[in-house]
Description:
By secondary structure, this protein is mainly α. It is built from 9 helices and 3 strands, in the order H-H-H-H-H-H-H-E-E-H-H-E. It folds into 2 domains: 13-211, Cation efflux protein transmembrane domain (Alpha-lytic protease prodomain-like), CATH 1.20.1510; 221-294, Cation efflux protein, cytoplasmic domain (Alpha-Beta Plaits). Strands 1-2-3 form a 3-stranded mixed beta sheet. A hairpin with a 5-residue loop joins strand 1 and strand 2. The longest helix is centred in the first third of the chain and has 30 residues, at 83-112. The radius of gyration is 25 Å and the shape is elongated. The protein starts with 12 loop residues before the first helix and ends in an 11-residue tail after the last strand.
Amino acid sequence: MHDHAPNGGIRGSSNRRLLTISLCITATVMLVQIVGAVLTGSLALLADAAHMFTDASALVIALIASAVAARPADDRRTFGYQRAEVFGALINAIILIVLSLMVAVEGVQRLLTPTKAEIAGGLMLIVAIVGLLSNAAAMWLLSRAQKTSINVRGAYLEVMGDLIGSAAVIVAAIVIVTIGWMPADAIASLFIAVMIIPRAISLLREVFSVLAESAPKDTQVSEIRAHLLGFEGVRSVHDVHVWQLTRGAPVFTAHVKVDPALLEEGRAGHLLEQLQECLTDHFDVAHSTFQIEPVGAADCEETHA
């Protein structure tokens, strides 16, 4: 006895269109920043390009989740392709950590052994302003959709973080243009690297949590059990398992013992609908599976959740 298949990811072509536009903006500016870093010799611009890579990756992952959610499950992949987002996030997190560590090492070396090479602060400032404006545009595009989609919300927060990084590069460029203090570039690059690493580690932790099939962070099993026990005829809820296929796609299973009279009167179907509606409305769990059994039936598992 179960509900419909999970609908993780982004619903609707409108959100996909906004994500695609934001991805195009972000990827274009990332390439501009890489070229700008080569031309100006700015490590901060290169670090900001790495930060833009996080935004592009988040947008790609969100788009993958959107496409995956539309693909039906089959006999081989009974839950569909939801885990594609998780593996994408794992690759993203590893790349981010490597890039940020490389930027941090180079930044420290520049501070300890300053080079005589001049940084083209004027061009650096122009490229940084372009990055700032592009992030502001992407945030504006995603501002409405992020209120209703967790995947869009994640991409929105990534763009917000990079907006701060672009602001740091602008400050460094202004310092270089006005007083010629070149270490400002290395300091800005270290600031951006410090911003990236905690977010990458947080993403890794989330990936490992999903792959370990842990309960979602905000899910309280005891609270769910208490809600289910509130329905008429329900006597116990055991063998409870909660995990998530990917971010925002939780799955719930449980055995529910009920009064034998409820089954004899044919009210099991109505109770099942109530239980599933409770999971959907109160806990945002779209996919739930219940085994309804009479009080006195032997438990299927020796240990109960």
